[in-house]
Structures are given as C-alpha cells and as structure tokens.
Design goal:
single chain; abc type-2 transporter like fold; 5-stranded mixed beta sheet
C-alpha cells in the first residue's frame, strides 16, 4: 500500500470536483435551498380552516348560536388543532360535503333539548365527507371541546322530581355524537397518505432510472452515433420512452401490488384508473429524466438532481402537507409541479372513487407529459458533450 499514490488519487478527484462549478453548486447550494424550502413548508404553513354548518331543529335551535361561537373560539385558541369557520348549510346537492363550501354539518335533532332536559345525553349528528380521516379527527375533536364548553355554561331545565344535586351531573353529561361519512367509512389516517405515495415512488424510480440510463447512453457514445443516423430527435425520445417504460412498469407493478395486497391500500375506483395513472406518471418521470440528464456529466450530478426536482415535490404537492395550507408564495410553485396532479388523482380514484375528478387530474398530468417530451427533444443536441 502506497500512501503517496493514495493521496495523489484523492487529490486528483478533489481538484476535479473543485474545478466543476456545476458539482460545487450541487454540493453547497442545493442542500441549503432544500432546507430553506422545508423550513418554509413546516414553519409558515397555516393551520387548516374547516368550514362547518350548524343545523338545529325545533326547540334545539336554543343551542345553535352558542355552539357556533364556541367552535370559533376553540379553533382560534388552539391553532394546531385546526380552526373553524361557520357557514350557511348547503341548500342543495350542488354544495356537496368535501368541497370548498362546507366540510361538516352539525345537526341538533329536535329531540335533543327535551332529552337533555330529561337527563338523557342527547344525540348530535355530524355529516362529514370522510375522504380525509385526519380532517374528520380534527372536526370531531373540535366539536367535543366546544360541546364541553357549551353544555357546561348553558343552564338547563331541571326534570321534575330530580334532586338539586343532579343538575350538575346533567350539565356535564356528554352527548352522543354520531358521525356519518359520505365516503371512506373504514378509512384510517394511513389510507389517506399511501395512495399519494404510490405514484410518487413510481415517479422517483422512473426519473432516476431513466436519467442514469440516458447518461450512460451519452457518455458511452451510443447516443452520438444514433444522432448521426437518419433518426430524428423526436424518434429517439420516443424510442427511449418505450425502452425504459417496460422496466418502469415492472417496478410500478411491484409497488402497486405491495400497496394493495400487503398494505391494503383502498381502491374505491377500480384497478384500471390506478394503472392508467401510474403509466402517465412514469412516462412523465421518464420525460423529465431525459431532460435533466442532458445537463449532467456524471452519475453524481444525476443523483444531485433528485433533491432539485424530485424531493421537493414530496413536500409541495399535497402528499404530506395540504397545498391549501402552504404559504401563499409557495402555492404557485406547487401547482406547477406534475406530482400535484398525480397525487390528487390517486386520492380521487383510490380513496373517494371519484373517477370524473381523477380523470380530470390525469388530463392535467398529460400536459406535463407533453411538456417533458418537448423539453427532451429541445435539449437533445446533435453535438454530445
């Protein structure tokens, strides 16, 4: 073992990286940018504001104003648990639960006040969308905290024959809460996140495999010889798409199979829309993989491009943090990334079974696929560096 030769080799590699401005930028600038981005997402994201409506039937309307005030106060006092905005109840099916108009409806049946006056707990009905188990949990927690305040502060009629001591126990007696979900009756919190992670993993591996493979084609001289042939750049891009797609689909099948049959991820909309979504996602990843690979001179630079383009989408595209809760200046960036539409399509299809919304999101994703093809063709030069 020669220490001098080992040092000379290490020094050569160090100077080689030091002279490459692109690699230096990827080493020192990109990590700082990513950390700042994550800091903005985590620290500056706003708490979720849920629009709720309170409906009271008959004499139970006595409780409605107090509960509305308590919901607003409880949400404002604990921003980490989400805030509530009181809205008017939907008058028709045009304002479905789960949309932007209303996320929950609290209903006091007409027998609620008589039951409370008779010493019974009473029953409150909560209608929610159910597609987001985390949101359902926040709504239920906010309602419980608000009810404790309302029912402990509002005096009730003492039932005939009830001793004075029973009044206090009636005031704090919690009511029965019946939660009715429009969709996702058996969903857990993980069932909301896994459907969006499935296409993200397909995008991640599709991008990485395509970028590395295309780089080898360039550095090995194969692409240069192909460009010297009568083939057009568009033909080459489509050929690489087809070649990489087969292996990417096998990898996607492994991801989907494990998610569906081992992790038991829901598939409310059926298998065909899921497969179609993964095909579009993988093709889009391949297009951007070819495009970014044209700017790389080594496998190290390709790997450094993952935190530039792929990793930020995990935080910005609604997979972990909801887009509506992001800081305002990050929302345009989130809406300009392909995984925003792929993740939303996965939830629409797999969780909610809403094929119309899912296919709409896939249509937007198809525009990114076309954009990636155009960029790849434009970036593929006749002269390979």
């Amino acid at each position: 073992m020669s220490g001098q030769r080992t040092f000379a080799l290490a020094l050569r590699l160090f100077l080689q990286v030091l002279r490459d401005r692109r690699e230096m930028a990827l080493i020192f600038i990109v990590p700082v940018v990513i950390m700042q981005l994550v800091s903005w997402v985590v620290r500056d994201s706003v708490s979720e504001t849920m629009k709720v409506a309170v409906v009271a039937e008959g004499a139970s309307d006595f409780y409605r104003p107090q509960l509305e005030d308590a919901l607003v106060e409880v949400g404002g006092a604990d921003a980490g648990q989400g805030a509530f905005e009181i809205v008017s109840p939907p008058t028709a099916a045009a304002d479905p639960l789960g949309g932007d108009e209303v996320q929950a409806i609290f209903t006091f049946p007409k027998e609620f006040l008589p039951d409370r006056s008779a010493g019974k707990p009473g029953r409150i009905v909560v209608d929610v969308d159910g597609g987001d188990p985390g949101q359902v949990m926040l709504i239920a927690q906010g309602l419980q905290r608000s009810l404790v305040r309302v029912l402990s502060e509002i005096p009730i009629t003492t039932p005939p024959g009830c001793p004075l001591s029973c009044t206090e126990s009636i005031n704090i007696l919690p009511p029965d809460v019946e939660i009715r979900r429009a969709v996702g009756h058996d969903l857990e919190l993980i069932d909301f996140y896994l459907p969006a992670i499935v296409p993200y993993l397909a995008f991640f591996f599709g991008f990485m495999m395509t970028a590395l493979s295309f780089l080898r084609e360039r550095t090995g001289g194969t692409l240069e010889r192909l460009l010297a042939s009568p083939l057009t750049r568009f033909d080459l891009v489509l050929g690489y798409f087809g070649g990489f797609l087969a292996f990417s689909m096998v990898q996607a099948a492994v991801i989907v199979g494990f998610a569906l049959y081992v992790l038991d991820v829901p598939t409310a909309g059926g298998m065909f829309p899921v497969v179609l979504l993964l095909v579009l996602t993988i093709l889009t990843a391949e297009g951007f993989g070819i495009f970014f690979s044209t700017f790389a001179h080594s496998e190290f630079q390709v790997m450094q491009m993952l935190p530039i383009f792929v990793f930020p989408q995990l935080f910005l595209c609604g997979i972990v943090w909801k887009i509506k809760n992001l800081p305002e200046f990050l929302k345009p960036l989130a809406m300009s990334l392909p995984m925003t539409y792929s993740a939303q399509a996965a939830r629409d299809v797999m969780v909610r079974g809403d094929l119309v919304a899912g296919y709409t999101q896939m249509g937007y994703l198809s525009l990114f696929l076309l954009l990636s093809i155009v960029l790849s063709v434009a970036a593929m030069r006749r002269r390979i560096l």
